[in-house]
Amino acid sequence: MQNKLALVTDFDGTVSDDDFFDLVAKKYLAPEALVPWDLYLEGKLSHLEALNQVFAQIKIPEKELKSFIKKIHIDKSFSSVSEYCFKQKIPIYMCSAGCDYYIKISLGNIIDKYDIHLITNHGEYNSQTGLKMIPPKNSPFYDQDVGISKAGVVSYLQKQGYKVVLCGDGPPDFAPAQIADVVFAKKILLKKCIEAKINTQPFNSFKDVLNYLKGGHNDILSL
Questions:
Q1: Less packed terminus of the chain by CB within 10 Å, N or C?
Q2: What is the value of pTM for the model shown?
């Protein structure tokens, strides 16, 4: 019987208001720089290959890039959720098809302070070669297409006896949403979950997630 909780959350567009990809493309990249992404949408490149080709075209001083990343808006309630989970020994797994380079800069000391497990690609930046994402090929959660398998993380935790609460917003979150015990969804993920008749809680901030973790379980949407 599952009697302990684990939280699995996406970063881009979930903990942050917007995807790093969208923000950096709008600020620094010309339309032609996004051609690899179009090829991904057409099934001609993997998600990881497309992002690497796009991010390789970011050629600004690293100091400027870090300053840009620090301005990405983070859900103010995420820190409260992290603190609560840390005190209650509820493990948090942050799973992203992006990379640790901008996630760590965005979140500052939250990851280390609250012992968050960051499952993502490694990122290295050079103003001459751009941002390179390196997949964790030795990880049990490695996925060839996006770098890491969110569904793999959810399945792993369930096998350890955890009831998994998933938070996400995009297409890569749909596979884990199909097997998670509780799903908090927004944007594209919410639409896909409703269409698939997956029990889902729409949410606007992690305050809703915190209320659930503290025991307010009655408002989960049943379809």
A1: N
A2: 0.94
